[in-house]
């Protein structure tokens, strides 16, 4: 039986990796085997950091809400507890945005929760 190597599929696979490695430094962007390792590692980092991004933003929002809450005479935990008890369903992203861009509205929310 003759030997086959399926050249079109192999070429397509290699071109895909090399295209993803475009812009990498030195042999990482030129040599297929090195580029393959770099691209695979880069994809692992991308997957991991998509998850980590959500955590870091949530931490940032909590810090901003806490700072604004303390300026209005309460703490983050008391504010969130009060919002929960009053049945106000507003997420941390929106609260943090209000705290930064519209402090008057944030102060009104704090007053409503503490009353």
Summarize the structure.
This protein has 115 residues and is mainly alpha-helical. It has helices at 7-20, 32-71, 76-86, 92-101, 103-114.
The residue fraction in helices comes out at over 70%
Mean pLDDT: 94
Percent strand equals under 5%
What is the CATH third-level topology name of one domain? c-terminal domain of poly(a) binding protein
Number of strands: 0
Rough shape? rod-shaped
Q: What's the order of the H and E elements?
A: HHHHH
Query: Judging by the overall fold, what is the CATH architecture of one domain?
Result: Orthogonal Bundle
CATH superfamily placement of one domain: Ribosomal protein L20, C-terminal domain
What are the low-pLDDT stretches, counting only 5+ consecutive residues below 50?
Answer: none
Q: Characterize the biggest β-sheet.
A: none
Supply the number of helical segments.
Answer: 5
Task: Please report the distance between the alpha carbons of the first and last residues.
Answer: 86 Å
CATH class of one domain: Mainly Alpha
The Cα radius of gyration reads 26 Å
Structural class: mainly alpha
